[in-house]
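Re: beginner question about structure tokens

> Can someone show what the tokenized structure looks like for a real chain? I only ever see the sequence side.

Sure, here's an example I had lying around. Input first:
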Amino acid sequence: MGFVSERALQNLHKYAYKGVDKSPLSKYVLNPFWTWFVTLWPLWVAPNTITLSGLSIVFLNFATLFFYDPAYLAEKGGVVMPNWVYFSCSIGLFLYQTFDAIDGKQARRTGMAGPLGEMFDHGCDAMNTTLEVIMASQALNLGRSWWTVASQIATLANFYLTTWEEYHTGQLFLGAFSGPVEGILIIAAIYAISGVYGMLTFLRLTNVPVVKELPDLPLNDAFMVFGAFGVAYNLQSSYRNVRQAMLASGKSTTQPLLLLLPFVVSAGIQVFWLTHPHYNNSAIINSPLFVPFLCAWGLQFAHQVGRMILAHVTSSPFPWWDWMWVWSLVGAVDANLPMLVDRAPIIQTSETNRAIIVYLTLAVSFAAYGRFCTLVINDITNFMGIACFTVRKKDKDGNWQESVPSSAPEDKKKS
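And the corresponding structure tokens:
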């Protein structure tokens, strides 16, 4: 027991997952499919193995896309992606959603449901968020642009809001239209359309059949407008649920709003770094460093929300501070020295040095998040006497036992 305190670990016994999904699509179409699909998995497959398998598919899609477009230039640089790459991204994202939906069902089938599963699930979701932003922006032909940065901010904000809401209300709330359900299917559809028409630059809303009187916008611009409305809706929806929970418990309804500031601060630091003057005719947003920068940002965000989820399942104080802010702030201030004090950067003095600091930031962010995941998994599995990737539990004598006997009837295997 090193990373997580003994008191916090004791609170794991009080944890119980609560979720609300009001999506008609999920209830009447997807959930019956998920209920059937989970039966295809043997009971010896651990739920976290299913979750990690889904994320591995996304990593494969990500690697494939950058094999063909390593500089993230798309058609602007003369790179034309094979259509099958977009189709594979569409299928991969749908599979990720499916695997992400059935891991909880598998946990109940095998008697492995618990706080570790929620943390592992949310951790994979947090990493997938940035990967999908990068891939979807490529499919939408946004590429190295502030539109992609705006997409990153909006998508991470939605994830942060959901986690912030769950921390205060004690349950995961998915409305009639949510990112994990309809949002993912929309992105999968964008990949599929890109596979048919190429990147979405010229395909316009006015060409969409059935619906008339639409503004004459390209689908990529229309998607960005839709995303902005989505963030605004989720903000008021999440706060409404949090406010109701605070009123019911007799607590302040404004104090939770202060806990949105950590996201504002972290995102502000990243944007500040990206807005640095074009010293030596170079800028991160216009260079191949753009994608590594976004990946480092995504890993730091995953670390941030991972600590929020840990605080939720252990009934611990909300994490206000993340030490990775200092690292990124140093890089941002250094890059902006020409604007702040009219002098050249101290560290990022050349394109080579800038590349070194960006890739070093990526490495440090990966190491920090990897360390967090490893320590938390070790502490929880040791405390609860469970394994992360096998369906096993420790008995009272400390010996490993199968969580569910393979010979047990199906109805007795469900918990």
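Each token stands for a local structural state, so reading them left to right follows the chain. The beta strands are 19-21, 172-174, 392-394, 400-402.
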